[in-house]
Amino acid sequence: MGLSKTIWTNPTEFLRNQQPENPVLFFSPSALQAAARRFIDGFPGMVTYAVKSNPGEEVIENLAAAGVRGYDCASGFEIDLIRRLAPDAAIHYNNPVRARAEILHAVAKGVKSYSIDSASELQKLIELVPAADTEITVRFKLPVSGAAYNFGAKFGATVELAVELLKTVAKAGFIPSIAFHPGTQCTDPAAWETYIRAAADIANQAGVTIARLNVGGGFPSHRLNAVSPQIEATFQLIDRVTTEAFGADRPLLICEPGRALCGDAFTLAARVKAVRDDTHVFLNDGVYGSLTELPLIGVIDRMEVLSSEGDRRIGPLQGRIVFGPTCDSVDRLPGDVMLPADISEGDFVIVQGMGAYSVVTNSRFNGFGELQMATVLSLRV
Ligand SMILES: *Cc1c(COP(=O)(O)O)cnc(C)c1O
């Protein structure tokens, strides 16, 4: 995978000229910077980027250029990446379980913010991290729905445990904060309200005034034509509820979106390898490639089909079984995918909103997955 220096007008121009046999991800720096500005202008606090959603250097560089000053990192690799590409940015090491060697690496790199969700992992930080000017954030979870995929299954302390952890953090001399993550692609703003009120209860029960409240990622990207993300409404709700719940002890706010920053800045073009006996569509990309997420959190219907000459297919929509290129029968897009009836071998299937959890989870299984990247001025075909 490499990013060529040529900038194309749009995906169609590239596809018509290059006739790529491998899948292509088109990147629009201006779309990414616009997403960053939307958060920086609208969110009532600090905007940080969850690096795991797309750690591409072009992504980090454009976010830094747009004014993103903090990065949520989960590994030594991500910490080193941010130190190299955005040396002055704040690093929040928010993977709540770490090996001791990883903690020492972060300390050596000057990381001053860590999250935990258990007594054992907090104890490791108390032993290895100097407390001065250093924040420890207690991450909690609630049985709240509204997201496409629930992160609470792996991380987050119960409310009762969070109260105890917060007391210990404050007693050990660290700056105490609270975090939650409502789950990814969370289209229900009410999830944030429930969490913020619970965070205020935790601080209250612990008798600790928290410095910051991290309201997570989870902000949605645009996956369905009919559902435009209402991000500003969520920002306003977060602002109002934080004041109501914390009153005079209102903490500073942090958000750490991944998907909502990078998702809509990339568009995928996968090529039709075959329409098998006029029924099944076989693409050169699938669930072991950049479409990994679709079976987990549902389809993206922002799709169009272009002929190899770059003309839009406008036949009536027809449900098709769509397979990826590997020999594994799991390699299939969920359900029936609505595609123009005249879709043909050699066509390009364009999928908008493919920037998050696509490049990073792309595997080389079965020898496929050689993903090419191209920069475009506009993602519209
Ligand atoms: C993955 C992750 C995020 C980003 O989640 P999105 O749903 O992509 O916004 C934010 N914070 C933490 C701790 C995460 O693990």
Tell me what the structure shows:
By secondary structure, the chain is α/β, with parallel strands linked by helices. Helix content is 30%, strand content 22%. It has helices at residues 11-18, 29-42, 57-66, 76-85, 100-108, 119-128, 159-171, 190-206, 231-246, 259-262, 294-297; strands spanning 3-8, 24-27, 46-50, 70-73, 90-93, 113-116, 135-139, 175-179, 212-214, 252-255, 266-276, 280-283, 303-306, 317-320, 322-323, 337-340, 348-352, 372-376. Helix 4 links the parallel strand 4 (70-73) and strand 5 (90-93). It is elongated, with a radius of gyration of 22 Å. The mean pLDDT is 95. The chain binds pyridoxal-5'-phosphate. The site of pyridoxal-5'-phosphate has 17 residues, from helix 10. One of its GO terms (molecular function) is ornithine decarboxylase activity. Residues 36-262 form the Orn/DAP/Arg decarboxylase 2 N-terminal domain. It comes from Paragemmobacter aquarius. The active site is at residue 327.
